[in-house]
Amino acid sequence: xxxxxxxxxSAPDDDPWLWLEEIExxxxxxxxxxxxxxTLAAFGGAAFARDRDILAAIxxxxxxxxxxxxxxxxxxxxWKDATNPRGLWRRTNLAEFRKAxxxxxxMLDIDQLAASESEDWLLSGIATMPGHSRAILSLSRGGxxxxxxxxxxxxxKRFVADGFTLPEAKGGVDWLDQDTLxxxxxxxEGMATASGYSRTVRLWRRGQPVDxxxxxxxxxxxxxxxxxxxxxxxxxxxxxxxxxxxFFNRAIWLRDAAGTTTKLDLPTGVWMQAHGDWxxxxxxxxxxxxxxxxxTDTVLGISLSAFIAGSRDFVVLFEPxxxxxxxxxxxxxxxxxxxxxxxxxxxxxxxxxxxxGWSSATLxxxxxxxxxxxxxxxxxxxxxxxxxxxNVQDPLTPPSLLLIERGVASPTVLKQAPKTFTADGLVVxxxxxxxxxxxxxxxxxxxxxxxxxxxxxxxxxxxGFAVAVKPYYNASLGKLWLERGGTTVQANxxxxxxFGTRWHDAGRLAGKKLSHDDFAxxxxxxxxxxxxxxxxxxxxxGSNGGILITNMLVRYPERFGALFCTIPLIDxxxxxxxxxxxxxxxxxxDPDKPxxxxxxxxxxxYHTAKPGQPYPPxxxxxxxxxxxxxxxxxxxxAAKLQAMGYEAWFYEPAAGGHGYxxxxxxxxxxxxxxxxxxxxxxxxxxxxx
Length: 689
Known about the structure:
The chain is built from 14 helices and 39 strands. Helices cover 20% and strands 33% of the residues. The protein folds into three domains: 26-56 and 420-681, Alpha/Beta hydrolase fold, catalytic domain (Rossmann fold, 3-Layer(aba) Sandwich), CATH 3.40.50.1820; 170-263; 278-417, Methylamine Dehydrogenase, Chain H. Strands 32-33-35-34-36-37-38-39 form an eight-stranded mixed beta sheet, with helices on both faces. Strands 5, 6, 7, 8 and 9 form a five-stranded antiparallel beta sheet that branches. Strands 1-2-3-4 form a four-stranded antiparallel beta sheet. By secondary structure, the chain is of the alpha+beta class. Strand 32 (426-434) and strand 33 (440-448) form a beta hairpin.
């Protein structure tokens, strides 16, 4: 577990571990191999293999829900199990899908493809042309965000020999017609932003070398990304173009069939969705238009043609409350669906525009507690008749997949996921902790009804990018933590989107430190309520949650018994220079600006860690194929902590992307390694609460 390597002399940025950022560097890979061996020797073995196989078998169950999208008359699904670890792209129809055991037609066997081409392929995206006779497949190596694009003939189930192909790059395509693609890819000289995403939108015609594709719009390299989307819901084909200025701000253009591009006169912080001659948008900031003022997070609707002609006669479709916030909006069958959390309870409203005005109705027949997610069944909006799919679950109730026909019929159950753990004697309760500044921080606790004061607790949270954390059914935690006598806690930190923009803004930039205070407050509240003691609290966080977990290590070490930090962001001095890091400046700040580095360094645990502190044991795990959050963050933090003499473990499998593995067995192994570590370090033997 110790580091034998010595820092490279005169390392830039005064960082002695900078050499660990060389993803495939020999010295760095020697470090990784040595660390993996130590970690697997300590927490692997028979018990690890047993639990990994138990969990992998759950992920591979034949009766798991096959989630689908409709393209034309067919329902498409990407399925993984023990026989098909990389996956099958397959299809059926709705009538067949309703059966207990549908018959599926295999379109592409990814395992066979990977074996035949000796590549680590996974299928990460499918873009079908109008009519669905051809598709562009996005093939990822090992789960990376960057993809290789290849044209596929749906009828023959073969790749098109002389079809569209594009080497590995971040980005994708949309079809304009059978011979023209709308290309938003970072491939090519000068085509990438500083964040590594597409800087242009190009028209790529069949048979044309990609470097000769017409650039129809481009942005500057300091913007995050440029993308284009074809839209045939209007009276004539059109293209929507989005210049993603930063993570939360965008400029929007409309390109008509004649090729004229018009920039819409909108504030940059909007969520906007259009269908036919209507569009709706949610504001990120207060805005005034047409002599009226609208508050942050309000949703407005208007006729698109009227708006372009100069009208600002918006209709208010949704107004937020202090703890009531929009989570998303989309069109299906000419109706706008609003997804809302009201005091964390799911609600859905259907708004229908017409020449006479907008009507609104609440979508009924769905539970008011737990988690309800809704999305359109049809992949292409122009083909939608309004059919919706809903996923309903809670921490003790496995998911049900429901169909809501035309968005108005009573929901009917299409599929029910199996129960994967015994929930007898377990209860779900909701609580609130009081953070350092008096804010109420909600959290969901799942575990035995009777408190012992010494419960082995698994805490998790995210707290970033306006992402709302919801209490989903979790097969791994259920089987390997709850069923064996443990308790789980999921916290809703500031920085998330649970209560709208004000909740997010309170936990970003300089406020990110408050988000971490929120998590520590929940840990303290568990002790105050008599649920457990600090030494029995294990905490896990990934990605943005990696900043969270390493801040618990260095700022609140006395509140935790062990920490598991996954695919983490940690080094806030160099994060903008590593892979997609520049795209997150709007969430954290720019370390090259002295005034912003002042707050960033306050939660850059890589810089605030110091010797001689009561830090709890920590396992830091990443994946080598993560091309979103650089694996150097995890490597360097582990090396630095070990050099200071702390109990810091490290693990890095070769594949997985920004996730836990390329297949179910790898994913299970990653998770179980963390469970084995946490349980040992908080002094918990399975089944002994």
